[in-house]
Amino acid sequence: MRMVGRGRFAGICFMGLMALVVAPSVPVHAQDYRALLAAPDRSAADRENDKRRDPIDMLNFIQPRSGMKILDMGAGAGYSTELMARAAGLTGMVYGQNPPDQFERARQAFDERAKSPAMKNAVQDVRPFDDPVPPGVRDLDMVTFLFFYHDTTYLPVDRALMNKRLFDALKPGGILAIADYSARPGDDVSSGKSLHRIDENIVKREVEATGFKLVAAGDFLRHPEDKRDTPSSRAPMPVDEFILKFEKPR
């Protein structure tokens, strides 16, 4: 066996340690996401929200990482925007999109959240759904669209244009992650308003028509006992939800 001198061995160990410390492309793993969620400065309201949002599996599926540039569509009060901001870290940037006619209560809640240190790398992006990308922003690493796509089916939104603009704003290999409340297979888009649900096949069809490629579907939000025939906000049991990951071809 070839022996390595003590000085050289120490140098190799030091360089290996530095690589672990500074490498920016190392993915965030489950342990890190758990630490992110356990941060003592997270609000009690967000911790309560965790119980129904399954954020560990969500983050592991989406895989936001340090340094990423992320657009969070339909941000509302900013629950998911803050999660993305914590994952992206101070070297990343997160835009929380809400439309100009967003409910005032949600906008105020986002503004209040924006004062926290965890949101230093996040800004509220007040723009229409079909023109959501701030001027000059390009080469996004990721777009998240969590539990709001169905609302665009009854709002005055050109979804084809919206999806095209998201496609154009992402860099090649960029990810679009969409989660929503499941409608029954074959239900048309009217279920977006009547039940606050959407058939995932509609989402797949509309998003893939833009040029995205479906690369993964998660089952951790599934509840097959949900008959999917009642409004998602008033369902008598846990709501069946889907999550899809699309990629802009490289």
Instruction: Characterize the biggest β-sheet.
Output: 7 strands, mixed
Shape: globular
Helix count equals 9
Mean pLDDT value: 89
Strand content: 15-25%
In percent, how helical is the residue content? 25-40%
Based on the structure, what is the oligomeric state of the protein chains? single chain
Distance between the termini: 45 Å
Q: Order of strands across the widest beta sheet? A: 3-2-1-4-5-7-6
**Structural class, from secondary structure content?**
alpha/beta
Report the radius of gyration as a whole number of Å.
20 Å
Spans with pLDDT under 50 lasting ≥5 residues?
A: 1-29
The ordered string of helix (H) and strand (E) elements is: HHHHEHEHEEHEHHEE
Find the count of extended strands (DSSP E, 2+ residues).
Answer: 7
Describe this structure in words.
Helix 2 (30-37) packs across helix 4. With 250 residues, this protein is α/β, with parallel strands linked by helices. The protein has 9 helices and 7 strands; from the N terminus they run H-H-H-H-E-H-E-H-E-E-H-E-H-H-E-E. Helices cover 35% and strands 19% of the residues. The protein has helices spanning 6-22, 30-37, 44-53, 55-62, 79-88, 104-113, 159-169, 191-194, 200-209, and strands spanning 69-73, 93-98, 122-126, 140-146, 170-181, 213-218, 241-247. Residues 1-29 have low confidence and may be disordered. The protein is globular and about 45 Å long. Strand 4 (140-146), helix 7 (159-169) and strand 5 (170-181) form a beta-alpha-beta unit.
